[in-house]
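Q: For a teaching session next week I want to show students how multiple molecules come together into a single three-dimensional assembly. I've collected the sequence lines for a complex. Could you give me the predicted structure tokens for the whole thing so I can convert them for display?
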Amino acid sequence: MKILVCISHVPDTTSKINFTDNDSQFDTSGVQFVINPNDEFGLTRAMWFKEKQGASVDVVTVGGAEVEPTLRKALAIGADTAIRVDTPAVDGYQVAKQLSAVVKDGGYDLVIAGRESIDYNGGMVPGMVAAMTGASFVNTCISLEIDGNNATAIREIDGGKETSTATLPLVIGGQKGLVEESDLRIPNMRGIMMARKKPLNVVPATDASSETNSVSFSKPEPKGAVTLVEADNLDKLIDLLHNEAKAI
Amino acid sequence: MSVLVYTESENGSFKKTAYEVASYAKGVADMMGTDVAAISFNANDAGDLGTYGVNRLHNVSDSKLDKFNAAAYANAIAQAAKTEGAKVVVISSSADSRYLGSLVSVHLEAGYVSNVTELPSSTDPFTVKRTVFTNKAFSNTAITTDVKLVGLSKNAYGLKENATECAVQSFEPSLTDNDFSVTVQSVDKATDKVTIADAEVVVSAGRGMKGPENWGMIEELADVLGAATACSKPVSDLGWRPHGEHVGQTGKPVASNLYIAIGISGAIQHLAGINSSKVKVVINTDPEAPFFKAADYGVVGDAFEVVPALIDKLKAFKAANA
Ligand SMILES: Cc1cc2nc3c(=O)[nH]c(=O)nc-3n(C[C@H](O)[C@H](O)[C@H](O)COP(=O)(O)OP(=O)(O)OC[C@H]3O[C@@H](n4cnc5c(N)ncnc54)[C@H](O)[C@@H]3O)c2cc1C
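A: Of course. Below is the structure for the complete assembly, covering every listed component.
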């Protein structure tokens, strides 16, 4: 089985979010970049398939040279080959176009992407890749089993879970649940050494324009101070919630 | 031309999200000088769609589509958009709508923006405000394609009445085997409970509850308020509560009217998931807990004393205001 894991290179979850150039660009200074948490669950599930059922695992990112440390980390975790599509990521559509070209070239059976990346939260890349390559698609996937050409996937729905079956090729939008958090891997020294010798192929971008563009960014209005209520005066809290906040 | 809206239903009846996206679609249609058409699957009738400004409902009746099917629904929505000549398609941000959104977008070659919080600031260029960086910021985003697909954030726009007559017509999309390549085998849903996604009020608790055996009072508080229960990440990691209740950056976003956080520290990854909730109440023993900075109302106190007392007082309040 040939697996491709799509990796998004995102600011670490504790990053302070600021903008520059008249609020038109994300300010990357001082920001640590990591593998998108949703993708990390998918990468670990891919390693499980590789070790337990036999599979090759490639990882791919769309972006400039600055994303290579993130790809190296994925190689150190155990991916066989990394691919960088050499163009800046502009929007979900343009990224999905680039990834689809890699999927078609590589003839992958299974494409694992994260349900969304934690920077732009669009949640559109996995579904677009599926639609562009003609593969089946399961989103918000929290469990995936593959038996030959058949997949059984569980996805999270509002208020529960849904189990479905599909044949490969399949694209999933994965998330926490695909593997236990305690199974996530931290690259060890041996992995890091081996990653240096693994191929990181830089491929040229295909021609694809974007469909949307971020004109400007803004931040939420600063919040007023909290109103504290004494623990022995909860009538006050109920009064505030009823009359001031109109929330009950 | 018209604005097309996908209206979600369950067992034939429209969900509240359907009326919210319809309200929003009417707002967009007014800006563009056009009307609103809707598409639904196996709806019993037009429900209250007319009340919220929908002029026509294209209803697909097909027992094969009784269960949600992203690929087939997406193909049908795209065909309805083409039939209507719709320039704007509006969907919600439920798990199902997010599932089919990207597929609709590819069918229609429509630029798709999700997590939209307001009406467009301009329709030419078509520019909408959406949340980014897990609710830590907003982006004004222009859609440059001829057809636009908007995914509306939950509870962002609210319900707005604009009564009109809604005509129901049946719609028969042509679907192929490819649209059924994913087959739903079973759905496991807690039917008698309010879900986090639909709830107006969410009662959430964290590691400060010490163990799963202490959730009885959290559930009771939720019951009194007609609320859904939720939790912080370590609580679901420890298996005290199901994964589906975990709120935050790596869990679910919550956009409720009222969010009550009990024994939750307020780490940045948790706050990211609740930024779009309107009123936040925090109960925590530690006056330095970061959550107090994000809250509207706070009680510094022990949950094991505060929550039972709050339950009693809320019961009395409800009885007096019934
Ligand atoms: C990549 C990444 C992603 C993450 N994503 C998420 C996410 O999506 N959601 C999430 O929640 N977290 C997430 N986290 C974890 C987050 O950083 C915090 O660890 C977590 O939110 C803390 O949960 P907590 O507040 O329940 O527990 P704790 O940090 O243990 O805090 C417990 C709180 O309870 C209070 N308390 C204790 N006893 C009582 C009492 N008797 N009465 C009242 N209060 C009491 C304490 O004062 C404390 O403030 C993520 C972390 C990482 C690294």
